[in-house]
Structures are given as C-alpha cells and as structure tokens.
Amino acid sequence: LHLQPLPGTDVAVALAVAHVAFRNGLADRSFLASHAIDLDAFEAGVADWDPARAAAVSGVPAEAIVALARLYAETRPMFLRPGWGLERTRNGSDAMRAVLSLPAVFGQFGVRGGGWCLSTTGGYGIDPARWQTVPDAPPVPRTANLSALGTELKRSDPPFRAVYVYNCNPVVTVPDQAAVVEGLSDPDRFVVVHEQVWTDTCALADVVLPATTFLEHPELVRSYSHYAVHYARPVIAPVSEARSNHAVFRALAERLGFGAEPAFDVTEEALAAEICGTFPFPDAWEALQTRGVVELPRPVQFGPAGPASPITLVGTRGLPRYRPPPTGADLPLILISPATARAISSTGYETFPAGTATLEMCPSDATARGIAAGDPVCIRSPMGEVHATAALTDALRPGIVSMPKGLWRSATANGWTTNRLIPAHLDEHGGGACYNDARVEVQRR
User: Per the structure, how many domains does the chain have?
Assistant: First the structure.
C-alpha cells in the first residue's frame, strides 16, 4: 500500500486514519483506556476528519485511507518509522504528532517489533548537558534560528556585526536564499567561513579559514539510526594551515583571554575521553581505544504492554492541526527539494557540472504547459526565479515538481537554487524550516 499525500497534508491523513479506527471499531480501546490521557478530546477532534475530507485535502483516495486503517489494525507487529521530510512544512510538528499517535490508537506499543522510532539518539542514555554546559558562562545575548538566517540578519536587537560559519553552507541550504545572500554581503558585517572547500558561502566571506577533513582530525561519532559509538583517528596530518573546529575555537579562546577555562584548555582526545565518561557504562574510552567501535549496552527494549508514562494525544497545544497552503491558483505546483544519493546536504555538489540542474515534473503537468523533456524552464514565484532544464518522470504525482536540495549556485542557469523559492516562515511549534512549502509555477523559457 503506497500513499502519496501532498506535502503538508500528512496530518490530515493521520487524523483520518484515527477517525476510521474509532468509527469502525478498529481502535484498541483497552490499551488507550489504560495508557492514554485526553482520549475523549482526541476522539472528538478526529470525528471531524472523515476520509472524504482528508482525501480532498491530501489527494489520497478515501478508500486508501480506510485500507491503511484496516491494515494497521490487522497487522501485528506494525512498526512506524517516520522520515525527516514529514517535518519540512508549515504543518511539520503537528503532522509528526498526528502520525505518532497511531501506534497508541491501534495498541502497537508493548508488541514485540511494534511501536515507532524516529531517532535512536535518546537510546544512548547520554546526557549532553553534562558536557555541553559551561559553568559560570556569561549570558548569551541572543540565540538565532539558522533556518531563519535571512530574517535574523535583518534584525537589530542587537544586530549581527559578525558571523562565523562552520559545518554549514547556508547560501544553498537555508530558506529565502536572496535574503541570506543580501545579509552575508552587507559591508558592515564581518563574515568568517571555516571550510574544507570553496563554497558559495565562502564567496561572500571577508575571511576564509581552511578546515580539516575527517581524515585529518579525531572524531567521536554517534548516530540517530544505530546504537554504536565510533572513535575515528586521523590518518594524515592537517594539510598546510588547515585546523579543526576544536583547534580554531581553542585559539580564539586564547586570544580572547579565556583559554584557561576548562571547556577550552583541553585537547581533542582528552575532550573525547571526558565525553565518554558520561556514557551509561564503564570503560567506554578504554574500549574505544582498543576496538574503535563500541556497541552501547542498550538493545531494543521489549517492556510490558504499555509505556512507562501516560501517552498524551492532545496536550496543551490541542489536537494536531492542518493549515492550508498560503497560496492561490496562480501558484498551482508544489516544489520539493529532496536529498539524492550524490550528496549529503550540499557536500558533494562542488563537482556538479555547471548549468545542468534539472527540474523533475510528471508528464501531465509538463504537457499542460507545453514543456518537453530537455526544454529550458523557469520556476517562478513572488520570491524569485530559478532556471533549469525539464526532466519528465512518472515517479512524481501531478502537482509536484522536484529539484535536489543543496545544489550549488553554479548548477542552475541563473545562479539561484530552490532555496530562492523556499519561504522564510517556520513551523510554529518546532521552528523548523518549511522546505516543502514552496509554491511555484513553471513555464518554458
């Protein structure tokens, strides 16, 4: 069963699945009565989301929504693994809340192999506060959301007089690309970029510092998809004047007069050993020295038939809510910018051939606009234009067009990427970027 809801409408589909569960007697009421709070409010709320209403919003046929509810109820175990794309719209956090309510509705917790997993990070049993908190640190003047960098750089309370960029290429990864470029180009703002290769962000910097790669510095690595910790040792010395993040931060601390503070007066290896000391089992650092990889002693736990704490289905924020797209009929297409196997975020696109970026469209959308494969096209919205080449595919449903995320500016014909068309607004609860909220029109140029 493959459902393809329009971006931003997953919340409607999930609420409709819950609606069917209660209406058709598929919900596990015994489990819910024992483990869920605010059940009555949740059931009353989803009563308004029948499959027909969700189908009109999402484009998923009503019968497919009913089939998913039946499949969920009849299959044990049923395991839910949400992807990250679910978050990347105006409804991101509410969509996640709605989707993650389904294992509770169908009583899939406590079933061996059932339930859900978004990330394994919490399973490490590590308390980051123990090594991320600096005692007696001065107050932070302001914390800014990187996803709103273009907007943040325009603020003046207080203004950003300097920007230090590391582990990031914001010119091609952050929404509202034009605002980001304008903000980093401000002659009154000092911009430093610490980078391994010359990126589009480097081109706007006052100073570029060479950074080491993973081959040149040690790293303590964990993941959000497994339970292993890896200690990677450098295999070559830093090339030329390249320095690691830690080396630069230590040097800056020294120049600013607080290099003797415990957070900075420590080597990378000693810091890794200190972090290992917070792990929930002894001798982690010693084990990493001998084996390089350590499996944390926290295998998947199959507890009793229920969670340790009550499940909140509604909470203080109310029922998960669907917000319609803030656009009209003049922008009928949704532009998505997914990852590809070629790159990780923007890393890897430095070798992408200049001017060869393609926009994928389904054949019916292309035909309706007089566009054929290989035609030069303009993707436009009030935020700007991106010029690319059309590519036709049956993998996309009508109404969706796609261009990879992280492309560098040289990849397109006019030097702007999809981020030029991604709106600046954020998810109102989680503050996440709404990459899949870009509404556009496409025409041949």
Answer: 3
Q: Are residues 167 and 269 in the same domain?
A: yes
What's 95's DSSP letter?
H
- Reported as a single tens digit per residue, the pLDDT across 308-339 is 678 899 988 999 999 998 776 789 999 999 99
User: Which CB contacts under 8 angstroms, 24+ apart, belong to 40-48?
Assistant: 41/313, 41/314, 41/319, 42/18, 42/101, 42/313, 42/314, 42/319, 45/15, 45/314, 45/318, 45/319, 46/15, 46/16, 46/18, 46/19, 46/22, 46/319, 47/19, 47/22
State both tokens at 362.
């389904």
Angle at 181 between CA 175 and CA 184, to 5 degrees: 115
The answer on 285 and 138 residing in a single domain is yes
DSSP string, 173-239: TSSSHHHHHHHHT-TTSEEEEEESS--TTGGG-SEEEEB--TTTS-EEE--SSSSEEEEEPPSSPPP
Q: Which domain holds residue 256?
A: 128-295
- How far apart are the C-alpha atoms of 267 and 282, rounded to whole Å? 22
Please give the DSSP secondary-structure letter assigned to residue 243: B
Same domain, 403 and 430: yes
Q: Evaluate whether 390 touches 358 at the Cβ level (below 8 Å).
A: yes
Question: Would you put residue 93 in left (φ > 0), alpha (ψ -120 to 50) or beta?
Answer: alpha
* 158 and 142 Cβ atoms separated by less than 8 Å: yes
- Is residue 345 in a domain? yes
Query: How does DSSP classify residue 352?
Result: S
Residues 331, 441 contacting (CB under 8 angstroms): yes
Structure tokens belonging to residue 95: 């969509």
**How many residues are given for the chain?**
445
**Around 359, how many Cα atoms within 13 Å sit in the side-chain half-sphere?**
33
Provide CB contacts within 8 A for 101, sequence distance 6+: 14, 18, 42, 311, 313, 320
| Per-position b or e across 5-14, b if 16+ CB within 10 A of its CB | bbbbbbbbbb
Tokens of 221: 């690595």
Q: What's the pTM?
A: 0.92
Would 290 be classed as within a structural domain? yes
| Residues 389, 377 contacting (CB under 8 angstroms) | yes
pLDDT tens digit sequence for 79-130: 999 988 899 999 999 999 999 999 999 999 888 888 888 888 777 777 777 6
Q: How far is CA 436 from CA 85, 323, 422, in A?
A: 8, 14, 8
Distance CA 85, CA 82 (A): 8
Task: Say if 325 falls within a structural domain.
Answer: no
